[in-house]
């Protein structure tokens, strides 16, 4: 009994432990779903126009018929809806649609034989489709199941010629059969479109990709998509990893992003963990180091350093004219802090200053420690999330926002940020370096920061399918995470992307031989 009580007490903690917070979270709202519906409806029309109806033949008394080469000529899908349905579903309804058909007829009634074409229309077409969303083994969003029901309220066939009245009287057999065959082909067509074609589109969502030659990003889903009446939420791992150690895991202790807004089509949230894992991966890849020597050292910085260490350099004669070497190396993984007032990155580094005489070992002038808090401006460019770092502190209004394809600063100015250097060798040298702090910070801003920002210029892609892009982006800071609210647009149609990645058909699935033409011999009927 006591053991059972303890288990009940521990159960809430076990549930919390099993829920890993996402580093990246995407929310699609009803407004975004409306855009998807418009593009999806065009795709459904194209799929239904490709419906293949098998030949229909038979006889009723002295009436023999053979219907072949059925083609969909036109569709009218005026009334359609695409809605969220908790907990994992999308519901797609088409009401009171009409489908125009054209097919070849071969008819024999007593001694009268006739061939030609018939125009028919199916009216009152109702299609109810429920798509279940899930994550697959690779962590991608997938359509895992589809439930479909289709019905046709009525169907009409138009005949012409001298036997029109006879055909209209006997057409009940043809119309009834065609209505049945057509209704039986709608759902298989939509099932193939969803489970095969649309899933091939979802395959373009980046899950585990390399960002550059040093690090990669893991965007695998942590759990199945969560659907409410108004939103669809996707929780992605959002963890960077060093390519030298791809199986490394970094535990997420950051605040879980909470998206409350619904005004835009889509919201993407990034926690501090997302940025921390990127800096941890770069640190472990050993690339957070900058070495400048000789002509690569900016002239203004070289003049300042030579003046500062003039006495030491003079005592090293004849090495006074030796090239200067700077080695800036981050000593620990940087850490990101996101607040409503802005985003910053805390960095600890070593700066070693040396002379490199020709054919002689380097002579170290100073080894100083640096502690600084960099300002970070986060913005979107296309589908790439980019970060621009600055030694000046970025100050903004109550809401941090950038809109459009480039940063747009609202109520902003640059203020002094934390920057401290001190000697690793003696307190006296630290005191001597105090006068060097302000000019060194300025020169680092002008010389080193452009190098760092150039390395991060490419950014990292946000996990969206190919052909879907952001517009009118707005970045908003919160406590522990930031959100990007945006609208969506299709730079490529669904059909264009699907055709690009359509699997090559096999010979078994698509026989090379063409079906034989229906016989025109009345005896074959």
TrEMBL record:
It comes from the Eukaryota. Gene3D superfamilies: Bactericidal permeability-increasing protein, domain 1, Bactericidal permeability-increasing protein, domain 2. InterPro entries: Bactericidal_perm-incr_a/b_dom, BPI/LBP, BPI/LBP/Plunc, Lipid-bd_serum_glycop_C, Lipid-bd_serum_glycop_N. GO terms for cellular component: extracellular space. It is found in: Secreted. Belongs to the BPI/LBP/Plunc superfamily. BPI/LBP family. This is PLTP protein. It comes from Sapayoa aenigma.
């Amino acid at each position: 009994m006591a053991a059972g009580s303890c288990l009940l007490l521990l159960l809430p903690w076990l549930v919390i432990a099993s829920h890993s917070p996402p580093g990246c979270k995407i929310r699609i709202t009803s407004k975004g779903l409306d855009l998807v519906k418009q593009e999806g409806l065009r795709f459904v029309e194209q799929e239904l126009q490709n419906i293949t109806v098998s030949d229909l033949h038979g006889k009723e008394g002295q009436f023999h018929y053979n219907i072949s080469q059925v083609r969909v000529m036109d569709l009218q899908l005026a009334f359609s809806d695409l809605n969220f349905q908790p907990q994992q579903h999308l519901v797609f309804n088409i009401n009171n649609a009409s489908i125009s058909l054209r097919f070849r007829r071969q008819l024999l009634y007593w001694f009268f034989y006739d061939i030609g074409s018939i125009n028919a229309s199916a009216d009152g077409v109702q299609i109810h489709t429920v798509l279940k969303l899930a994550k697959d083994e690779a962590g991608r969003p997938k359509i895992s199941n589809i439930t479909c029901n289709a019905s046709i309220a009525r169907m009409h066939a138009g005949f012409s010629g001298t036997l029109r009245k006879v055909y209209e009287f006997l057409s009940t057999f043809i119309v009834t059969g065609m209505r049945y065959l057509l209704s039986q082909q709608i759902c298989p067509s939509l099932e193939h479109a969803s489970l095969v074609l649309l899933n091939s589109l979802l395959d373009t969502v980046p899950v585990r990709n390399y960002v550059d030659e040093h690090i990669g990003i893991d965007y695998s889903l942590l759990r199945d998509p969560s659907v409410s009446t108004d939103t669809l939420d996707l929780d992605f791992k959002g963890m960077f990893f060093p390519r030298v150690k791809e199986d490394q895991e970094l535990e997420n202790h950051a605040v879980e992003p909470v998206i409350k807004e619904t005004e835009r089509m889509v919201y993407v949230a990034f926690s501090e963990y997302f940025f921390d894992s990127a800096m941890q991966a770069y640190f472990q890849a050993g690339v957070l180091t900058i070495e400048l020597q000789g002509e690569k050292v900016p002239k203004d910085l070289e003049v300042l350093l030579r003046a500062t260490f003039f006495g030491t350099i003079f005592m090293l004669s004849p090495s006074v004219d030796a090239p200067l070497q700077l080695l800036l190396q981050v000593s620990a993984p940087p850490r990101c802090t996101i607040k409503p007032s802005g985003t910053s990155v805390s960095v600890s580094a070593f700066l070693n200053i040396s002379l490199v005489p020709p054919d002689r070992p380097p002579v170290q002038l100073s080894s100083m420690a640096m502690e600084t808090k960099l300002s970070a401006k986060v913005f979107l460019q296309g589908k790439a999330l980019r970060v621009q770092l600055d030694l000046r502190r970025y100050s903004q209004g109550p809401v941090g926002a950038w809109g459009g394809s480039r940063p747009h600063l609202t109520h902003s100015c640059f203020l002094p940020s934390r920057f401290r250097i001190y000697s690793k060798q003696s307190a006296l040298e630290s005191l001597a370096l105090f006068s060097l702090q302000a000019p060194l910070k300025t020169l680092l801003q002008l010389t080193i920061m452009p190098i760092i920002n150039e390395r991060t210029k490419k950014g990292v892609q946000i996990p969206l399918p190919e052909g879907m892009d952001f517009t009118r982006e707005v970045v908003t800071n919160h406590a522990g995470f930031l959100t990007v609210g945006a609208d969506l647009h299709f730079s490529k149609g669904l059909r264009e992307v699907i055709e690009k990645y359509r699997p090559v058909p096999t010979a078994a699935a698509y026989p090379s031989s063409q079906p034989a033409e229906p016989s025109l011999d009345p005896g074959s009927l």
